[in-house]
């Protein structure tokens, strides 16, 4: 999920930069280049952050008694 979010975020940002940035600075032929290294790093960072965000809830859930958890529902 985090990798997919990273890909969507990168391409949404790339599309926004390509569509909006030239209009903001008033240059019609500004070329915003695709950088595969930056795309890979952004997806990797999204995956790392997703994994780090899942660690604490997983550890807390692992320490719970299943009977208590189901009783709370």
What does this structure look like?
The structure is a single chain. The longest helix has 27 residues, at 36-62. The chain has one domain (2-72). The radius of gyration is 20 Å and the shape is elongated. It has 73 residues and is mainly α. The two termini are 26 Å apart. Helix content is 79%, strand content 0%. It has helices spanning 2-25, 36-62, 66-72. Helix 1 packs across helix 2. It contains three helices and no strands.
> How much is the radius of gyration in Å?
20 Å
Can you count the helices? Answer: 3
Largest sheet: none
Structural class: mainly alpha
Helix content: over 70%
Q: Helices and strands, in N-to-C order? A: HHH
Which residues form runs of ≥5 with pLDDT under 50? none
Number of E strands:
0
How far apart are the first and last residues' alpha carbons, in Å? 26 Å
Mean pLDDT over all positions: 87
Task: Give the tally of structural domains.
Answer: 1
Q: Give the strand content.
A: under 5%
Shape: elongated
Name the assembly state.
Answer: single chain
């Amino acid at each position: 999920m985090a990798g997919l979010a990273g890909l969507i975020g990168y391409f949404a940002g790339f599309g926004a930069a390509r569509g909006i940035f030239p209009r903001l600075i008033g240059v019609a032929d500004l070329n915003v280049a695709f950088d595969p290294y930056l795309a890979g790093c952004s997806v990797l960072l999204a995956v790392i952050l997703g994994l780090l965000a899942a660690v604490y809830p997983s550890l807390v859930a692992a320490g719970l008694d299943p009977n208590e958890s189901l009783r709370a529902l």
